[in-house]
Amino acid sequence: MIPAMSFVDDAPAGPALTDYDRQHVKLYVRLLDSVADGADWQEAVSILFGIDPTRETERAWRMYSSHLARARWMTEHGYHQLRQGARN
Predict the structure, then answer these.
(1) Closest to 25 (Cα-Cα) out of 86, 71, 60
(2) Which of 42, 44, 68, 85 has the fewest Cβ atoms nearer than 10 Å?
(3) How far apart are CA 6 and CA 15, in angstroms?
(4) Cβ proximity of 60 and 3 under 8 Å
């Protein structure tokens, strides 16, 4: 679990890289790794977000799916913006 971080229920969805994205790059990578490893989404939510998916099923699914979508966006678009920011 990543206890020191706080998470929003819905990850950013716009076309621009956000401070939230920058702060959660490691989470995005871990989510992508969990999918590649075939991990159960409920286990991933419990470990990565620190919430109980059996008690908060809808919230857990929303957090998981929105953050996974953002993680995938990062691999296609966001990393370009991240790299450009690193050059400045």
Answers:
(1) 71
(2) 85
(3) 22
(4) no
